[in-house]
Design brief:
Elements (H helix, E strand, L loop, with lengths): L2 E6 L5 E5 L17 E3 L7 E3 L5 E4 L15 H4 L2
Antiparallel strand pairs: 1-2, 1-3, 4-5
């Protein structure tokens, strides 16, 4: 039984829902709106070379700086 992430289009609340079979959430647990969409979950991994070195960080490891375009905080100094 997978857990999926959903987003409410009315109140903006993100929530998780344990799915039994094909059952989807009927409403947002915060505002009770039926306008909910399934989100694409991010996965994280590191690619390793034959010597064990990191080749490229995953998208989930990208910078959290608002206006920064560097791949990581080490790239911009923050």
């Amino acid at each position: 039984m997978p857990i999926y992430e959903y987003h409410c289009n009315d109140c903006g609340h993100d929530f998780e829902y344990l799915v039994f079979g094909n059952k989807q959430p009927d409403e947002c647990p915060s505002c009770k709106s039926s306008k909910v969409n399934k989100l694409m979950s991010r996965c994280g991994f590191l690619s390793k070379g034959s010597g064990g070195e990191t080749l490229k960080a995953s998208a989930s490891d990208s910078s959290s700086c608002g206006g920064c375009t560097a791949a990581s905080c080490a790239g911009c100094g923050h």
